[in-house]
Amino acid sequence: MRHSTIARAGLLAPLILLLAAAPTLDSRFAELRRFSSPYANQGVAVDARFFYAITNQAIGKHDKRTGELVDEWIGAPDGPILHLNSGIVLDGSLYVTHSNYPGVPMVSSIEIWDVETMEHIGSHSFGIFLGSATWADRQDGSWWVAFANYQGRGGQPGRDPAWTTVVRFDDEWRSMGGYVFPPEVVSRFEDRSNSGGAWGEDGRLYITGHDHPEVYVLRVPEAGSVLQLVETIPVVAEGQAIAWDPTEPRRLYSILRSSSEVVVSELVESEP
Predict the structure, then answer these.
(1) Is residue 11 part of a domain?
(2) What is the CATH number of the domain that holds 195?
(3) What is the C-alpha to C-alpha distance for residues 133 and 114, in angstroms, rounded to an integer?
(4) For residues 122 and 154, is the Cβ–Cβ distance under 8 A?
């Protein structure tokens, strides 16, 4: 009897060590604060001192500490800017993805502002491409841009959310490859699509859908074209665009469009 017990213990020991070496992380976004902004409708971008709340045809520049509106850009109702989405600040410029949503055929561009003056200073047009551009970010020396496809309003006949694609570009906007989302993430898009995306400091891609208060953490596969789902993290948001704080890499900015608020959260990982 004693010999049998020792033998079973010997068999279990490697398994116990294996489990101890690979703890499961229980991640969450802990809300820190909220700021009201009439522009918090599509997304938000952030730099060292300010956050930029984005709506279809306008952007509000807010002090990051107080939430005070310090500047704004407002497009003409009949101007070329129709539907802004997410933004990222790089070297003093705010890059915002833009489309003609819900128009078809879908056309897209990236529009550029000087964050000091909030003047529109440039544009890169994709024309008719793979869908509606919803977010752009930099990673590994490249641009990564998501092109959304929808079921119903804003969708193109013959396509659905499964056609949503993330494309990698070089600095001359030449395609270097692309990826699609796994079925378990596409199902959460329902009849909408991928709204926000940003690369984390851990080298993983954090994305949102259109409505659900969730962030999907993905990694690039070693082979094939389908991004791999790592985990789903609850967040105070209603989908839409997100942005990491460049000075606090684990601090995420999201929006609540129903209340016109920007929410600041901290990524917390704990071992149960």
Answers:
(1) no
(2) 2.120.10.30
(3) 21
(4) no
Give the Cα separation of 67 and 47 in Å (integer).
Answer: 13
Q: What pTM was computed for the model?
A: 0.88
CA–CA separation, 180 and 195 (whole Å)? 14
Percentage of the chain with pLDDT > 70?
Answer: 90
Per-residue pLDDT of 53-92, as tens digits, reads: 999 999 999 999 999 999 999 999 999 999 999 999 999 9
User: How far is the CA of 183 from the CAs of 140, 188, 226, 239, 255, in angstroms?
Assistant: 26, 9, 9, 18, 25
Cα dihedral sign, 48-218-208-151: positive
Does 272 score more than 60 pLDDT?
Answer: no
Count up the domains in the chain and report the number.
1
Q: Which domain holds residue 99?
A: 24-270
Q: Six-digit token pair at 178?
A: 């692309």
Q: Would you say residue 2 lies in a domain?
A: no
Inside any domain, residue 207: yes
Let me know if residue 12 belongs to a domain.
Answer: no
